[in-house]
């Protein structure tokens, strides 16, 4: 299967976007002092675990999608 140039670039951009957004979110989650991520004793809350799981899944999916986009961009450069 051959991807078009716009689709390849979109997939690559989506992969990068996913990493930027979720890395920023995780940094802010651990710095947050509102009690959402950690309770008063300093133990992680369910909120932290759920969002950490979402971030890990998004990292994996963003990596796979970005990798597909990168392969599409490279394939297009070799043929042109």
Key descriptive features of the protein:
80 residues; mainly alpha; 0% strand; rod-shaped
Structural class: mainly alpha
Question: How far is it from the N-terminal to the C-terminal residue, by CA?
Answer: 17 Å
- The secondary-structure element order is HH
Shape: rod-shaped
Main sheet specs = none
**How many β-strand runs?**
0
Helicity level: over 70%
In terms of per-residue confidence, which ranges show pLDDT below 50 for 5 or more consecutive residues? none
Calculate Rg over CA atoms.
Answer: 17 Å
Task: Please summarize what this structure is.
This protein has 80 residues and is mostly helical. Helix content is 76%, strand content 0%.
Please explain how this structure is put together.
- With 80 residues, the chain is mainly alpha-helical.
- The chain has two helices and no strands.
- The chain has helices spanning 5-31, 46-79.
- Helix 1 packs antiparallel against helix 2 (46-79).
Write the layout of secondary structure elements.
Layout: H1 5-31, H2 46-79
Helix pairs in contact: 1-2
């Amino acid at each position: 299967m051959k991807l078009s140039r716009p689709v390849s670039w979109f997939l690559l951009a989506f992969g990068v976007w996913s990493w930027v957004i979720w890395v920023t979110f995780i940094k802010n989650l651990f710095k947050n002092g509102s009690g959402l991520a950690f309770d008063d004793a300093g133990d992680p809350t369910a909120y932290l675990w759920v969002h950490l799981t979402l971030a890990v899944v998004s990292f994996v999916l963003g990596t796979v999608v970005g990798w597909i986009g990168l392969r599409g961009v490279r394939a297009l450069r070799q043929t042109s």
